[in-house]
Amino acid sequence: MTATLADVARRAGVSTATVSRVLNGNYPVAGATRERVLDALAELDYVVNGPARALAASSTDVIGVIVNDVSDPFFGIQAGGLQREVAEEDLLAVICNTAGSPSEELKYLSLLLRQRVRGIVLTGGAREDAEHEAATAKLIRQAQAVGTRVVLCGRPAPAGVEAPCVVFDNEAGATALTRHVVEMGHERIGYVAGPRGNTTTTARLAGHRAALREAGIRRAASPIVHGDFSRDSGFDAAMRLSRADGDVTAIIAANDLMALGVMAALRRAGTEVPRQCSVAGFDDLPSASDCAPALTTVRLPLESGARRAGRIATGRDGAEDGDAWLGAELLVRDSVVRPGGRARRAR
């Protein structure tokens, strides 16, 4: 038979109210008494009635995490960091996979609100669409109205919404990366951007263009092709760049997965990387240092940023409204050399 609150109280020699206080953590209980209650809970294998507790407390022990694609290492790293942080508070992280669909993002927001989750973390770039932004803002305000913490990780808050944001400095990282490629002597640089209408795409493309302006390189010398952040789209983009402008001496991709696709396409075309064409990426995923040649890229603190977002969502981090900016780090490896030159050793 399943143990009840009364069973635990009898075993610990306390009242049911004291057991409830220990379970909910909403009232001080003497250390020795608390230990007796915890021992009784363990001995009786007591399981908290989640739905009943949710009705009483107006929230569950769940943190919802909305990601684009958990199979993408960019989101997998963040989901893992968030899950570990949430578990430290004895809470459950529920990962919701949108497959890049704006409508799925709104659906999961609504479903999580219906479940009375304690917090919600929205990861990845936001859709740059006025209608979607307004719908997202409405759901976030509804969540905040019932006490659900909403945290943005890797994206800005929608217009009119005040919510804590963990922001990666995509623009500065992209500027540093393109500046490095230019300093290596490249003037005809192809660029594989992310999907249109995405805040991450916009920020990284802005950084790339800023470095080109700084160097006095015209946009016409840096053709741009859009992908969707997947390896396959990087492969297709490189093939298009090769057909449209065979004179590019370097290709910068807006993330590492697309950069790996670029390298595969260049190999397929018989172009040697980096001697005939340098390649750079962004994010510093685990595969970036393992490929050959090792990929020059920009490192974002994905796990630490996600863990910070997790602490805010659980209430462990006292951050209020406002942005927590996390810097980007240029990593110079073997995949970018001077035009016609040899690879340099990774560092």
Automatic annotation (TrEMBL):
Q: Does the keyword Metal-binding apply?
A: no
- Recorded superkingdom: Bacteria
According to the record, the segments passing through the membrane are: none
- Tagged with keyword Cytoplasm: no
| Domain HTH cro/C1-type: residue ranges | 4-47
Q: Which Pfam families match?
A: LacI, Peripla_BP_1
Which UniProt keywords are present, listed alphabetically? DNA-binding, Transcription, Transcription regulation
Domain (HTH lacI-type): residue spans on this chain? 3-57
Q: Which GO terms describe its molecular function?
A: DNA-binding transcription factor activity; transcription cis-regulatory region binding
Q: Which PANTHER family match?
A: LACI-RELATED TRANSCRIPTIONAL REPRESSOR, LACTOSE OPERON REPRESSOR
Protein name per the record: LacI family transcriptional regulator
